[in-house]
Amino acid sequence: MNPTATAMDPEKILRDLRDLWARLAQDRDGAGGVLRACSMTLIVVAEPDDEADAETARKTIGVLMHVHPSRAVVLTPRESGEFSARVFAECWMPFGGQQQICSEGIEITADSEQTDEVARLLVPLIAPDLPVVLWCRGPRAFLDRSLDPLFPLANKIIFNTRAVRHPSSAIEFLRRMRKEGGKGRRQVADLAWTRLTGWREAVAHLMDACPGGWLAAASGEVRIEYGGGRPGTRSLYFARWIERALPGVNVTLIPVAGGPGVHSVVFAGCGSETSIRLGEGSSLEVRTAERSYSAVLPPDSEECLMREELSILGRDPVFERVLG
Amino acid sequence: MTDSNPFADPLRFERQVPECAIVIFGANGDLTKRKLIPSLYRLAYERRLPATVSIIGTSRTPLSDDEFRSKMHDSVKEFLEDSPFDEDQWAGFAKGLHYIAGDLSDPKLYSAIKDKLTALGRTNVLYYLSTQPSYYGEVVERLGAAGLGHTTTQGWQRIVVEKPFGHDLASARELNERIHKVFDEADVYRIDHYLGKETVQNILAFRFGNGIFEPLWNRRYVNHVQITAAESIGVEGRGAYYEEAGAVRDMIQNHLLQVMATVAMEPSAVYEPDAVRDERAKLLRSIRIMHPEEVPSHAVAGQYAGYRHEPAVNPTSQTPTYAAATFYVDNWRWAGVPFYIRSGKKLPKRTTEIAIQYNTAPHALFTPDAGGVIMRPNLLILRIQPEEGISLRFLSKQPGSGMRLRPVSMDFNYGSSFGERSPTAYETLLEDALTGDATLYTRQDMVEASWRVVTPILEDWANRKFEFPNYDPGTWGPAAADDMLARHGHKWRNS
């Protein structure tokens, strides 16, 4: 019979972790030992029964640990009821360094119906006194309530609404989560919002470079072009962000051909137009009445987005304003 | 990004360096090739500089733009710290490198710089004085005469001045006056690269970001403070410079007094450039100025055996390669707490650290008779280099029977807690200057206050004849430095 979450002993997992560190120290015998680094607990929930997604999660965590060393817990839900746990370490040698740095991880496979039990199991596995970040990789959190028992464990929950079917409902869900979390107690983030940083930065710099430019924009209208047939959460966030920054301005979302996401933003006011358009590769083409230039969009790989989110463990007032 | 920008998001957006030019005077020198260009390259690599940034190097040596680029290419490859070199990235960065050969005393050099800036369309300019200090005043005056150096509505003009800022209080004041004829104080960035080090900045985070340390950061709990900057190397071909400077001017007047100010200053109300600098300046002004008769007991000079045989060094040199001093801060927080500062060359190892020694427990519960206990005071070590971090030494029970206590150390290692590479001091400071953030730069009043602190020592030593050399390479300096602490019942932390 397969073990169940209730049958699993967290003490055993912690013992395995201790043994792992003892082994790592022995392996490096005579080479100065390894440095154990941990700045948070990062719980990652992979998509149910999706080994490829779990593998991607593990790889992403491996990269993230170099910047945000953590005790990582990768949770893969299964329909089968099988439960298993194993511990692992991610080690790296810093450039020019003499001593290896290692972070620890725990991989847990559990019945997708047993999240309650898994949440109880996770409590003693959380690194004490450090922040806990929960990363829900897929859209499952928006489809059913099976992940709800995990939410109270976290100081910050990172979602990804990129692939949700109902963007407005997803945003409403995040707004509720934020309000339920209370001010400063539990933060909510969305990688769809993180993907907008490059766009938002380009807008902010444009306004800085054109004194009075935003005043002109505030008196006119803003047009956001998006692809993918319907406005996704990114386009909706972008529109709300502009509305919050320029109260009273008329922001219109316009569909265009092409892939999902924001394609352009045009500020029209005082007889002139200023635009930022998606260029070739990962660049933005900025055009004002006086000049044109390109801005480079930051990479939007999962690890880059997560790296940004894990750097913000406190309140994110701008995103909170956008969520409302 | 301006505060009034409704789109600002300081949590997520990088600070933006505007389109600008950096003009380096002394572009053929060591500092440019070892620190400045590698730091600028690294900033460009991390996209912290605009792609259009122009860097104009000037020096007397005739070089074409391409020759300068090739030279800098080799330097960056050699001196880039904790970071790989990327040829493709270099190719893009090198396009912005330009070179103008000329004599610093020749007005034509400044006309050529002006023409180049006009041709490049750059109105924001950062001038970097990396020449011999004796040229600082002249370069600034000639910039002014050429119509350069004044911030206008078209763009800013800032100047970074390397240390030493003067060789005494009078010359520092004179240099300030000459600079202020061309640049406003707000546009003068006096660099002290120690303040750009992550660990020095971390002192403020440690003290004022945590609730548990600051209540213990005063005369009631702190017995004394030791600040050490030790180098294992000698003057390494810089004999001529060192003969003029010596250990006090080279390290104590600038770096170590700034570090001391950071350790001992009061918290500012806000983390803004002038608020933080006001507190640093206030602390520097609170350091008790020694009376001339106090100098022999409060300061120790040393010179390592063999220094007089170094190239460009006077065979009867009286220049100290080691200096130690006891300072007191006359304020409520620190009254009566000695701050011991020392710096020297050819010491056993390279290390810079601050050791804060706390008072011992008021009652010795665990006496040596009751189990061979070694009672030692708690020690908080802030390590600045080479292994940046913080350690706290405290006593713990030794496992086993009886109540034997043993000192143990609780360590925080900067590198392992943040996997991310830390920017070098020059990267931090250059980016700060380009974005107009002067928090980590010293101000005129700070420079003058620190000169005032060391003036009695310099004057006394200038009139004394020392029995040099008085310490062997590889030792911790002259015995007199140990005696200076022993008189107070203290001992240098030599480890």
Mind sketching the topology for me?
The complex is a heterodimer of chains A (324) and B (495).
Chain A: H1 10-27, E1 34-36, E2 41-45, H2 51-64, E3 71-78, E4 84-92, E5 100-111, H3 115-125, E6 132-136, H4 140-143, E7 156-159, H5 167-181, E8 187-190, H6 191-194, H7 197-209, H8 213-218, E9 221-227, H9 233-245, E10 250-255, E11 261-269, E12 272-278, E13 283-287, E14 292-296, H10 302-310, H11 317-323
Parallel strand pairs in A: 1-5, 2-3, 2-6, 3-5, 6-7, 7-8, 9-10
Antiparallel strand pairs in A: 4-5, 9-11, 11-12, 12-13, 13-14
Helix pairs in contact in A: 1-3, 2-10, 9-11
Chain B: E1 21-25, H1 30-45, E2 54-59, H2 65-79, H3 87-94, E3 97-101, H4 107-120, E4 125-129, H5 136-145, E5 157-161, H6 169-180, E6 188-190, H7 193-196, H8 198-208, E7 222-230, H9 239-264, H10 273-286, H11 295-298, E8 299-302, E9 322-328, E10 338-344, E11 351-358, E12 379-385, E13 389-397, E14 405-413, H12 414-417, H13 425-435, H14 444-462, H15 479-486
Parallel strand pairs in B: 1-2, 1-4, 2-3, 4-5, 5-6, 7-10
Antiparallel strand pairs in B: 7-11, 8-9, 9-10, 11-12, 12-13, 13-14
Helix pairs in contact in B: 1-2, 1-13, 6-14, 9-10, 9-14, 10-14
3D structure, described in words:
The complex is a heterodimer of chains A (324) and B (495). Chain A is α/β, with parallel strands linked by helices. Chain A has helices at 10-27, 51-64, 115-125, 140-143, 167-181, 191-194, 197-209, 213-218, 233-245, 302-310, 317-323, and strands at 34-36, 41-45, 71-78, 84-92, 100-111, 132-136, 156-159, 187-190, 221-227, 250-255, 261-269, 272-278, 283-287, 292-296. Chain B is built from 15 helices and 14 strands. An 8-stranded mixed β-sheet of chain B has the order 8-9-10-7-11-12-13-14, sandwiched between helices. In chain B, strands 3-2-1-4-5-6 form a 6-stranded parallel β-sheet, sandwiched between helices. In chain B, helix 1 crosses helix 13 (425-435) and helix 6 (169-180) packs antiparallel against helix 14. The relative contact order of chain B is 0.13. The mean pLDDT of chain B is 90.
